[in-house]
Write a structure and sequence with these properties.
Mean pLDDT: 83
Number of strands: 54
Number of helices: 5
Distance between the termini: 48 Å
Oligomer: single chain
């Protein structure tokens, strides 16, 4: 049994108090985090398997690997450790973890004086006694730590229209809600405002453009918003309750965020200098149009998105890394250096300041499920928000004791497209359920279909007959991010990506069910696998060198080999195995080069950056999704005549994932189609009783 006080690297671990101490400052950690650290410290320098850790830390409890991965990620953040260049905890691929820092038993010394942790107002209520209870409860702000038991909360829908309502924004009084909405038959988002006690909203705009991201001026008398055509937007302001929108700047900005600065003279926007530069946050003076750069994300990242300003001038935002992971960052009022608040493994689906502006609420997948989480502005600790569970929560807005949150419903089905006598394509539903059945992959002979589905409660890999019969679940990861399945030429195995523990790796599994086999080591982000036509290699995209490139790894195992040197992401060989087609990370277009090496050429610039997985190379030609402001179609490039033709409508094919698959002969295609996507705005209000 280890000593209650251990010296681990530069940290003193007080295992009895669940505290880590460094340079006289103590950090309280969760008991599970300390238990993991102690388990590793008992065997310093040795690899400790995931199974051993799970059995020890969660005895008699059924949990997934994600619980352990999340605990290790939080522990690394407290220790200031880097998983790619670890000074404390090293990931051992396909095994577990190893403590690489030196461990010694600490000499008993007086406990250092630590800065007292911030206590909740619930604690202060108990300290001052029942006589102050009524006063203190009135001062408890919405998302601070709640006393036990948790106060009750009411939940009621604010919007009920068929369509999508999103980007909620409560005014400074907390009584009026601005939002953008689009009904099922409309192409454009318009702005609305609604008093929380009213039954219906007031429409504010009706332009043939997308009016999005409404934000209130600090005095609550006007809104700023973005009016967008394609991906370029103008900044507009609008008096409330009504008036004429006024464009405030001559230049355009990007549609990835908007906030009103506390002084009301400027807004915070998102933009970049070139198509290859990362997005930055800019302070845009509404009177002069002057731009001031606020953040400098690292090269290679998508950049900084979705700013949210606090009254003291602090600016929270999402940083989208090169690997696709998103984390919350905070830029202090002095605008010196931003710092990271969260340590996520995927996307931040939405976030907002809590009513007290001392913490942030965010929606993300943690511990295997999408939930609402709370992080203090100093970043420690992250906890599940004490709020009722919502269906797939998204963006949110808060005010003292209330919050309005997007609640999404997503139904995705798989449709088959087959040639008819005229040579055109007809479509028909193939795999239909109330779940999200996504990322289809046709077997080479066209008889079976692999796809990712949440029909079992978490996203897993499934296989059915092509008509949707005989469903078979092939994986049981219990919450990890799975995607991009692809068949081997013999139809016996399927390759796919698995994202967890802040990394992504390529796996294979037998198509009839069997043992999972990792092909890559998951030390970087390895995604979008595609076997070669001879089945010897598996191509994949990876950021392991610091930039996204196409790599390949032997099917039977071995070291990966870099294929591209001037950027690459998702790749696929032509049916004859002579040409390699590929996309580039977050760049529009489809490129080609000889498999054995040679000059790279641009095949088309009509494949959007978000459609990186919506294309296929077949004997019948190249197919890809072509999107415009008005429509989305699958185009076919004839391999002999090099002429383009429209194959079929693709208006509901999802972005950001593999939504199109084809047999090698090009005679059969399958697409994912979003049959139902709706978002309602839901009010959660704490009881004041």
């Amino acid at each position: 049994m280890p000593s209650p006080r251990l010296k681990i690297g530069a940290w003193l671990a007080d295992t009895a108090a669940n505290e880590l101490v460094r340079d006289g400052e103590a950090v309280r950690v969760e008991p599970k985090m300390m238990e993991v650290l102690v388990a590793l410290a008992e065997r310093p320098g040795e690899a400790v398997s995931r199974d051993d850790l799970l059995e020890r830390i969660w005895p008699g409890t059924v949990v997934t690997d994600d619980a352990l991965s999340g605990t290790v990620s939080k522990l690394r953040r407290v220790l200031g450790d880097d998983s790619r260049n670890p000074a404390y905890i090293e990931t051992i691929p396909r095994t577990g973890y190893r403590l690489v820092a030196p461990v010694t038993e600490a000499t008993p010394t007086p406990h250092p004086i630590a800065t007292p942790p911030t206590v909740s107002r619930g604690f202060l209520v108990l300290a001052f006694g029942l006589s102050a209870l009524a006063v203190m409860v009135a001062l408890v702000l919405f998302l601070q730590r709640a006393p036990t038991p948790e106060p009750t909360a009411s939940v009621r829908p604010i919007t009920r229209a068929a369509g999508i309502e999103r980007y909620p924004a409560l005014d400074p009084s907390g009584q009026r809600l601005a939002f953008a909405a689009r009904d099922r038959d409309s192409m454009f988002y318009h702005l609305f405002v609604q008093h929380l006690d009213a039954e219906s909203p007031l429409q504010l705009t009706d332009a043939r453009a997308n009016d999005i991201l409404p934000v209130w001026r600090p005095d609550g008398q006007a809104l700023a918003f973005l009016r967008c055509v394609d991906l370029r937007c103008g900044v507009y302001t609008l008096p409330v309750p009504g008036g004429t929108p006024r464009r405030r700047t001559e230049t355009t900005v990007s549609p990835y965020g908007l906030a009103w600065a506390p002084d009301a003279d400027a807004v915070i926007v998102v933009d970049r200098d070139t198509v290859t530069a990362p997005y930055q946050l800019l302070r845009l003076n509404l009177a002069t149009g002057e731009r001031q750069v606020l953040t400098t994300p690292p090269d290679g990242a998508l950049g900084d998105l979705i700013p949210a300003a606090a009254p003291d001038g602090s600016l929270a935002f999402v940083r989208h890394s090169q690997s696709g992971v998103e984390n919350l960052y905070l830029l202090p009022p002095d605008r010196t250096t931003s710092f990271q608040l969260t340590d996520e493994e995927g996307r931040i689906r939405g976030f907002g300041w809590a009513g007290d502006h001392q913490s942030l609420l965010f929606s993300a997948r943690r511990e295997g499920a999408i939930n609402l989480w709370r992080v203090p502005r100093d970043g420690d600790p992250i906890e599940r928000a004490a709020l009722p569970a919502l269906r797939d929560p998204g963006s949110l807005t808060t005010h003292t004791d209330r919050a309005v949150i997007e609640s999404w419903t997503l139904e995705v089905n798989l449709w088959e497209a087959t040639p008819i006598d005229s040579g055109d394509f007809g479509t028909r539903p193939l795999v239909v359920s109330t779940a999200a059945d996504r990322e289809p992959a046709l077997s080479p002979d066209g008889s079976r279909l692999a796809f990712i589905s949440d029909r079992s409660g978490t996203n897993e890999l499934w296989v059915t007959r092509r008509d949707g019969s005989e469903p078979l679940r092939l994986t049981d990861f219990g919450g990890a991010g799975l995607g991009a399945p692809a068949w081997f030429p013999d139809g016996r195995r399927i390759a796919f990506e698995v994202q967890r523990d802040g990394h992504a790796a390529i796996y294979t599994v037998e198509s009839e069910g069997g043992t999972l086999q990792p092909l890559t080591d998951a030390e970087g982000y390895d995604v979008a696998p595609r076997p070669s036509r001879d089945g010897y290699w598996v191509y994949f995209g990876s950021d392991r060198t610091g930039t996204w490139q196409v790599w390949k790894v032997p099917t039977e195992g071995g070291p990966p080999v870099q294929v591209t040197t001037d950027k690459g992401f998702a790749a696929m060989e032509s049916p004859d195995g002579a040409t390699l087609y590929f996309t580039r990370y977050f760049e529009p277009g489809l490129w080609a080069r000889p498999v054995e090496g040679g000059p790279v050429r641009l095949v088309t610039d009509r494949l959007s950056a978000l459609d990186w997985g919506n294309w296929a190379a077949t004997e019948a030609g190249l197919f890809w999704v072509d999107r415009t402001e008005a429509e989305a179609r699958v185009l076919r490039l004839d391999p002999e005549t090099e002429t383009l033709s429209v194959a079929f409508d693709a208006s509901n094919v999802p972005l950001r994932e593999v939504g199109l698959t084809a047999t090698p002969d090009g005679r059969t295609l399958v697409v994912a189609r979003t049959e139902r996507i709706e978002s309602d705005l839901v009010l959660i209000e704490r009881s004041r009783d």
